[in-house]
Amino acid sequence: MAETPTIRFGVIGCADIARKVSRAISLAPNAALYAVGSRSLDKARAFAAANGFPAAAKVHGSYEAVLDDPDVDAVYVPLPTSLHVRWAVLAAQKKKHVLLEKPVALHAAEFDEIVEACESNGVQLMDGTMWMHHPRTAKMRDFLSDSNRFGQLRSIHTHFTFAADADFLENDIRVKPDLDALGSLGDEGWYCLRAILWAANYELPKTVIASRNPELNKAGVILSCGASLHWEDGKVATFHCSFLTNLTMDITAVGTKGTLHVHDFIIPYEEKEASFYAATETGFDDLVSKWIPQPSKHIIKTDIPQEALMVTEFARLVADIKFNNSKPEKKWPTISRKTQLVLDAVKASIERGFEPVQIQE
């Protein structure tokens, strides 16, 4: 059996999420932690020591040093959204494959710069939406695609909320207009909108209408918002995201014959197993005292967590390019761009006084 090629990762930036992805890189069978860079050498050293980097890993006091290392195959970019276009483009120009945190950019035009740089330099681009890579997601797709059990999709409703503490609401980069100006919409809404597009098989809605009275902080960053999405064939979707309410991570997708419910779609309750509920042609008994048949629970197990599966898939694509002269997979940047387009439309609707916004590809 041929040995699995190992892709060497550099991490640029020491954000909290980088701790999780660094662990994922170490767990992935075809990836290795090779380098880390921060604006502070001391911070980079502390991060490497605390997050399982091997003793031989290179530690740098700048992002540029990671990108200039000829032995780094790919970089993970967990920097604030406002810095994505600069560093992702530079990484691509240095021929580094790019695993980019979400939201991918402040708006679609910025993301298009990143895509152009990656395409012109022949490097793979993927965003860090981890739940897409859990085997549960594929099983849920099987149910949604089954015309006999689910039928035709008619509505999708998603939520991602958590109750941030006072320190978060005052100091986290996700509430700073110069760092992550999209706030809750970019951080949480991204997942909700991706789930809606995923359920709709990535068909873009025609119209987006933001919900009235979003909550903003004193700097104008969104702390809580929502919207409705409308397709020409009558499908509808809603989402709500918030830094101000209790933790929820729900998808409800309703078809003409069936319903899908999942309550932990972004981060499963358990790291190595996840579940969803499926109902088909459900009704009541003749005295309306119980559901018949009741929704069935489906449990899917995995040997490694979803973030490690994400790294494994990304590293596989990179290895195909590096060793087999394959072309970069366009699926992932295409999905990212569609998510960004809908996010942009929600933001535009808020800014225009909750008017309907038409989406143009």
From TrEMBL:
The segment(s) forming the GFO/IDH/MocA-like oxidoreductase domain are: 145-260
Q: Which GO terms describe its molecular function?
A: nucleotide binding
Recorded family membership: Belongs to the Gfo/Idh/MocA family.
Q: What is this protein called?
A: Putative oxidoreductase
Instruction: Fetch the InterPro entries from UniProt.
Output: Gfo/Idh/MocA-like_OxRdtase_N, GFO_IDH_MocA-like_dom, NAD(P)-bd_dom_sf
- Could you tell me the superkingdom of the organism this chain comes from? Eukaryota
Q: Where is the Gfo/Idh/MocA-like oxidoreductase N-terminal domain?
A: 7-126
Q: Name one Pfam family in it.
A: GFO_IDH_MocA_C3
